[in-house]
Amino acid sequence: MSDQQDLQELELALSSLESTAFNFGTRFIPDSMVRVEYNRKAGLLSKEILDKVVSGKISVKEGAKQASEMRNILMDTLRGKTSEIARAYAVKQKSMGKSLPELEQKYAKKLYNLSFESLSPNNRNKVWKEIVFSSGRPQLSVNKLAKVFGAAGRGFIALSLTISVYNITTADDVLEAASKESAVLGGGLLGSVAGGAAAGFACGPGAPVCVTIGVFVGGVMFAIGSQLALESLWN
């Protein structure tokens, strides 16, 4: 393949990644501020890949491959299929079927030996981070992809995982939300959201408090911080 063809392939892969991320956000993220942030991180990921190509850190072909692999992860969801992230999380949670409030209590007890309601805002954020990344610890192919990304790519994956976990844990049926092949609201993992989540908020079964997706996502990303060290996210 000629250099010109390689460049065209890279341009197409980056454009497709950003377009797919935009469609993903439009269909599956009810909170407008989270959608804006998601699209911004997709743009940063594209720029990160392009910068590595320009600096000679990776080849044009490798850049196109990285962009295409990330796009394929999103396309699994857009097509109504179960992504690797969602499948691992669903299998892990199948026996428990825990709602978000139940998981909040579980990890508040584990980390601080306190109720979730009694925690400070910063510690609540850390609990949410633990909920999200407990699902990322299985050895997934997306982990392998994350290893070749810098902060922008890891941030994009972290945000995608956070949104996925939120929508699973606030659905009426945890396993169904992560596994069914099609649904009226777009199908698959992120289309299977409880009715309240479609309006921008959701409650787990019997939950006394509702947590918006914006608050949850913002809290998790704040707890992660700007320096996304892979080892601290996937052990």
* Relative helix content: 55-70%
Rounded to an integer in angstroms, the radius of gyration calculated over CA atoms is: 18 Å
Strand content: under 5%
**Mean pLDDT across residues:** 73
The rounded distance between the terminal residues' Cα atoms is 38 Å
- The parts where pLDDT drops under 50 for at least 5 residues are 177-209
The backbone outline, from C-alpha atoms, is: elongated
Q: Going across the major beta sheet, what is the strand order?
A: 1-2
Helix count, DSSP H or I runs of 4 or more residues: 13
One letter per element, helices H and strands E, the order comes to HHHHHHHHHHHEEHH
Number of strands: 2
**Strand-pairing-aware structural class:** mainly alpha
Largest sheet: 2 strands, antiparallel
Supply database-style keywords:
mainly alpha, 13 helices, single chain, elongated, 2 strands
Characterise this structure:
- A two-stranded antiparallel ribbon has the order 1-2.
- Helix 1 (3-28) runs parallel beside helix 3 and helix 5 (100-112) packs across helix 6 (121-134).
- 69% of the residues lie in helices and 2% in strands.
- The chain has helices spanning 3-28, 32-54, 60-78, 84-93, 100-112, 121-134, 141-148, 151-169, 174-179, 188-191, 195-198, 213-224, 230-233; strands at 201-202, 211-212.
- It is mainly α and 235 residues long.
- It has 13 helices and two strands.
- A hairpin with an 8-residue loop joins strand 1 and strand 2 (211-212).
- The model is unreliable at 177-209 (pLDDT under 50).
